[in-house]
């Protein structure tokens, strides 16, 4: 392996395989769909009343559905030409993008100016060198400032919750409303008007050394470039690249800095999965959009620019002082590959969907509904928050074949699929019996943080299935997908990985703490140390759990494991330092607050245990906010790990009250890495920590050590 910063690129092999449709003139009108009744969020614009007819949907939240054909990102294939390095240059730059056919074009920050960025395709074991160039300059040659406004909705003084106001389409920064005439103009979040683009790229899910991994502090200012080597020594998987800049990742990603990276291998090729036009990468995101100052009450005119509109809250810090802060953003509009509610013409055959939830905050529960002649579309707000309004027999099943880090052993059929931020699912769907029908990919829940009736539309995108028969109608998915897949298990004190027994491994302990004074209103991530049996318990910041290994003993004889935090913030000292080649069990205790999509860099892990506490029943015995201490938490109830969640993953959505054990093999890379919540607002605030993996010969000279070992 060459040193990436010292090796000159030997050869550049870039093949642009397909071109996305970005010209509105190329786009086709959507298929007929029943009009939706107006809701409180619908504003009838002059344009909508003038052109609305039976071939178009009524506007929803101010925009019409299915106006844009699903764009497919350009593909950059890093070809295997037999030499050691293939260098590709990828520029983060200011691009022009139209988020919806009826919206004006606007500036975005995007890789190669495209949103999503080009899809990078590379074969396993083909090393790739990428020059990540920060070219985020404006037309005057000055560093560009953020291409949208970040505003804070002040805590509501009316019965309407602040979160709902923040999810209402439109609004603007007060700087665009000099007379202060509109009541939906909001103050900018301090510092965001002057924010220029400091960037660092993380290839999410990749096994690569720490200095190639996008360490958040190692940002590059406009004009800089970073050369990164990706060995690609891992199985075929849906990876993605995105910005990871310290404390501003949420703004950079919302500006557009994300793209797919598809790793391919021989096993995947042998399966003859749907490919080419029948393999669709779907990057799902959400946005809110800015509106002009209304000239008359109720008028809603979009400028085309996104707006990052957050609900403000007043929290209390540990000193009892009031602090202004915000809850994580989510937008009322759902986008796929950069377009709001797009449509895709497909043929009646099997398709492969590479689904990525690239939302900053929102968890999606995906389901594919048959909307042909649908008489009761999910226009009722109640239908947006749960599955009660959906008709189960009109749901087309999906077959999950892969997770974040690779293919499952066998396909797992599902009717709904929960996907948290940064998670990916590789899905097959059979359109063969649906010729001439119309389907919708929908989100069966609202948003888990801003949940409320009508605050998010269920539609994600539409599939219009053609009538012409496909030539390969006989193809069926393979029953076995991945001979290399091995289930990880914890058996006694050993690990069982397929037929291999591993006697020694690391144990790390992390607690996810509910929002409170310690986090100034934000949830926290605590790295824990287990107290020895003779160490006294502190009066605050103490977590106590019954040792589940004592489940068979009488209650009085069961040991209590006690933990104290050793680190709460990113810049606190390292406590997780261990040898390359180690297996490690990460115990994550979720003690309340929202679900957190938990991402560990460098490895693909499996969830080996999943327990559940009933936090509501535990009350303050579960978590006492006054002293940051738990009572003695009982042995949690074992939860099943369904087949989809037995796959290789790098991000797992941890629910309140869960104690999950994530087992990873930390072999094949060294350096400083990060683990964090992938709700980008949480990551940017308090929920990210470093860990260090060193060659074991070096570890002998290193004083620090992990928090547990047996
Ligand atoms: Cu989180």
From TrEMBL:
<protein>
    <submittedName>
        <fullName>Multicopper oxidase domain-containing protein</fullName>
    </submittedName>
</protein>
<dbReference type="GO" id="GO:0016491">
    <property type="term" value="F:oxidoreductase activity"/>
</dbReference>
<dbReference type="Pfam" id="PF07732">
    <property type="entry name" value="Cu-oxidase_3"/>
</dbReference>
<dbReference type="InterPro" id="IPR045087">
    <property type="entry name" value="Cu-oxidase_fam"/>
</dbReference>
<dbReference type="InterPro" id="IPR008972">
    <property type="entry name" value="Cupredoxin"/>
</dbReference>
<dbReference type="Pfam" id="PF07731">
    <property type="entry name" value="Cu-oxidase_2"/>
</dbReference>
<dbReference type="GO" id="GO:0005507">
    <property type="term" value="F:copper ion binding"/>
</dbReference>
<dbReference type="InterPro" id="IPR011706">
    <property type="entry name" value="Cu-oxidase_C"/>
</dbReference>
<dbReference type="InterPro" id="IPR011707">
    <property type="entry name" value="Cu-oxidase-like_N"/>
</dbReference>
<comment type="similarity">
    <text>Belongs to the multicopper oxidase family.</text>
</comment>
């Amino acid at each position: 392996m060459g040193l990436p910063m010292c090796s000159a690129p030997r050869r550049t092999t870039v093949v642009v395989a397909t071109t996305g449709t970005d010209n509105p003139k190329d786009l086709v009108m959507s298929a007929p769909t029943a009009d939706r009744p107006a809701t409180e969020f619908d504003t009838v614009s002059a344009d909508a009343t003038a052109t609305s007819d039976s071939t178009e949907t009524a506007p929803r939240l101010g925009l019409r559905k299915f106006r844009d054909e699903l764009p497919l990102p350009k593909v950059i294939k890093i070809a295997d030409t037999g030499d050691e390095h293939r260098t590709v240059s990828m520029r983060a730059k200011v691009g022009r993008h139209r988020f919806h056919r009826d919206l004006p074009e606007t500036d975005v920050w995007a890789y190669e100016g495209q949103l999503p960025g080009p899809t990078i395709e590379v074969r396993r074991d083909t090393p790739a060198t990428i020059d990540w160039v920060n070219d985020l300059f404006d037309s005057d040659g000055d560093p560009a400032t953020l291409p949208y406004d970040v505003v804070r909705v002040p805590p509501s003084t009316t019965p309407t919750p602040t979160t709902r106001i923040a999810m209402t389409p439109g609004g603007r920064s007060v700087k665009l409303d000099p007379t202060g005439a509109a009541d939906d103009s909001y103050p900018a979040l301090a510092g965001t008007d002057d924010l220029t683009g400091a960037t660092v790229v993380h290839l999410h899910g990749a096994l690569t050394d720490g200095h190639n991994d996008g360490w958040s502090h190692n940002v590059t200012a406009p004009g800089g470039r970073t050369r990164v080597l990706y060995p690609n020594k891992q199985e075929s998987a849906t990876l993605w690249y995105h910005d990871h800049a310290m404390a501003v990742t949420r703004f950079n990603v919302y500006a557009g800095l994300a793209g797919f990276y598809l790793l391919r291998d021989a096993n995947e090729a042998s399966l003859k999965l749907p490919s080419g036009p029948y393999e669709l990468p779907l990057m799902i995101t959400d946005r809110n959009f800015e509106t002009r100052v209304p000239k008359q009450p109720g008028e809603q005119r979009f400028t085309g620019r996104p707006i990052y509109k957050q609900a403000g809250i007043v929290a209390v810090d540990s000193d009892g002082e009031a602090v202004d802060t915000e809850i994580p953003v989510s937008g009322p509009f759902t986008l796929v590959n950069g377009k709001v509610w797009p449509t895709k013409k497909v043929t009646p055959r099997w398709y492969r969907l590479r689904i990525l939830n690239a939302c900053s905050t929102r968890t999606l529960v995906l389901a594919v509904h048959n909307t042909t002649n649908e008489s009761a579309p999910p226009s009722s707000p109640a239908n947006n928050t749960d599955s009660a309004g959906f008709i189960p027999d009109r749901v087309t099943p999906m077959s999950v074949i892969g997770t974040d880090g690779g293919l499952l052993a066998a396909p797992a059929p599902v009717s709904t699929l929960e996907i948290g931020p940064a998670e990916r699912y590789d899905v097959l769907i059979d359109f063969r019996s649906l010729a001439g029908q119309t389907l919708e990919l929908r989100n069966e829940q609202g948003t888990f943080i801003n949940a409320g009736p009508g605050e998010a539309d269920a539609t994600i995108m539409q599939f219009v299935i053609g009538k012409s028969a496909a030539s390969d109608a006989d193809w069926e998915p393979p029953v076995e997908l991945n001979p290399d897949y091995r289930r990880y298990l914890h058996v006694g004190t050993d690990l069982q990985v397929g037929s291999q027994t591993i006697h020694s491994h690391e144990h790390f302990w992390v607690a996810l703490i509910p929002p409170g004074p310690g986090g100034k209103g934000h949830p926290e991530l605590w790295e824990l140390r287990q107290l020895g049996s003779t160490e006294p318990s502190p009066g605050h910041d103490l977590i106590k759990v019954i040792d589940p290994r004592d489940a068979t003993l009488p209650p009085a004889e069961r040991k209590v494991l006690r933990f104290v935090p050793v680190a709460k913030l990113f810049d606190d000292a390292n406590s997780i330092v261990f040898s390359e080649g180690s297996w490690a069990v990460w115990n994550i205790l979720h003690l309340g607050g929202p679900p957190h999509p938990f991402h560990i860099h460098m490895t693909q892990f499996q969830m080996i245990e999943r327990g559940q506490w009933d936090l509501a029943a535990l009350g303050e015995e579960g978590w006492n906010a006054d002293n940051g201490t738990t009572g003695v938490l009982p042995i949690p109830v074992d939860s099943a790990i369904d087949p989809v969640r037995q796959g290789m993953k790098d991000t797992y959505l941890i629910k309140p009250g869960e104690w999950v054990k994530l087992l990873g093999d930390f072999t094949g890379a060294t350096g400083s890495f990060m683990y964090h919540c992938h709700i980008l607002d949480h990551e940017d605030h308090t929920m990210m920590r470093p860990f260090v993996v060193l060659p074991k010969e070096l570890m002998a000279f290193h004083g620090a050590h992990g928090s547990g070992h047996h």
